[in-house]
C-alpha cells in the first residue's frame, strides 16, 4: 500500500519541487525535468519515456474536463452557438498547456512514491 505524504505531494505537484528533499527545482526549462535534483542530487530520470505517458493522459483529462465545463456553462447561458463551441475548444487546448507542468510534477511525485525513480546509484554517471 502506498503511503501518501500529502504535504510532499502538494509541494512537488504545485510548487514543482523535488519529491525527495522538497527543495530543489523540478524543471530546468519549459517542460524539461532536471536529470538530478539540483539540491539533493536525487536521480529524477527514471526509465526512458517514464515522464511522458502519465502526464499526457492527465493533461488531456484536465483539458477534456475543462472543455466540457466551459461548454456546459456557456451552452447553458447562451445556447449551443458556434462561438460557444470554439471557446470551449480553446479552453480545452489552453488548459492542457497550462496544466501540463503540474501534471508532470505530479507524475514525478508518483514515480518517486512508487520507487520508480530516486534510487541513488541506479544510473551510472556519463
Ligand atoms: Zn532534491
Looking at this protein, list some descriptive labels.
binds zinc ion; mainly alpha; elongated; disordered C terminus; 126 residues
Describe the model.
It is a single chain. This protein has 126 residues and is mostly helical. The protein has one domain. The chain is built from three helices and two strands; from the N terminus they run αββαα. The chain has a two-stranded antiparallel sheet with strand order 1-2. Helix 1 packs across helix 3 and helix 2 packs antiparallel against helix 3. The protein is elongated, with a radius of gyration of 18 Å. Zinc ion binds next to loops.
Produce a short descriptive summary.
This protein has 126 residues and is mainly alpha-helical. It has helices at residues 6-15, 53-78, 82-113, and strands spanning 27-29, 32-33. The chain contains 3 helices and 2 strands; from the N terminus they run H-E-E-H-H.
Write the layout of secondary structure elements.
Blueprint: H1 6-15, E1 27-29, E2 32-33, H2 53-78, H3 82-113
Antiparallel strand pairs: 1-2
Helix pairs in contact: 1-3, 2-3
Order of helices and strands: HEEHH
Mean of residue pLDDT values: 89
Distance between the termini: 35 Å
Q: Which regions contain 5 or more consecutive residues with pLDDT less than 50?
A: 121-126
Structural domain count: 1
Which molecules are bound besides the chains? zinc ion
Which radius of gyration do the C-alpha atoms yield?
A: 18 Å
Biggest sheet overview: 2 strands, antiparallel
Alpha-beta content class:
mainly alpha
Number of strands: 2
Please give the order of strands in the largest beta sheet: 1-2
User: How would you describe the shape?
Assistant: elongated
Helix content: 40-55%
Number of helices: 3
> Roughly what fraction of the amino acids lie in strands?
under 5%
Amino acid at each position: 500500500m502506498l503511503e501518501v505524504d500529502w504535504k510532499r505531494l502538494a509541494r512537488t505537484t504545485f510548487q514543482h519541487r523535488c519529491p525527495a528533499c522538497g527543495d530543489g527545482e523540478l524543471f530546468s526549462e519549459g517542460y524539461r525535468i532536471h536529470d538530478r535534483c539540483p539540491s539533493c542530487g536525487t536521480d529524477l530520470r527514471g526509465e526512458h519515456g517514464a515522464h511522458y505517458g502519465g502526464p499526457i493522459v492527465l493533461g488531456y483529462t484536465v483539458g477534456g474536463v475543462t472543455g466540457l465545463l466551459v461548454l456546459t456553462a456557456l451552452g447553458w447561458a447562451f445556447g449551443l452557438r458556434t462561438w460557444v463551441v470554439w471557446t470551449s475548444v480553446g479552453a480545452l487546448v489552453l488548459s492542457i498547456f497550462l496544466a501540463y507542468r503540474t501534471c508532470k510534477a505530479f507524475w514525478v511525485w508518483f514515480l518517486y512514491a512508487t520507487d520508480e525513480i530516486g534510487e541513488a546509484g541506479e544510473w551510472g554517471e556519463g
